[in-house]
Amino acid sequence: MENTIPKDIFRRIQLSRIASSMTGDRMASLIETLAYIILNYL
Asked: What is the pLDDT of residue 8?
């Protein structure tokens, strides 16, 4: 997975997940959505 997703996006996923959980968001962040799209359409 690390080889498919660009490194800068991969590093931001954990931080965006923490921020989303702190605000109470139950949906994926934009960074997580971008990573999902990259993995499924490459």
From this structure: 85
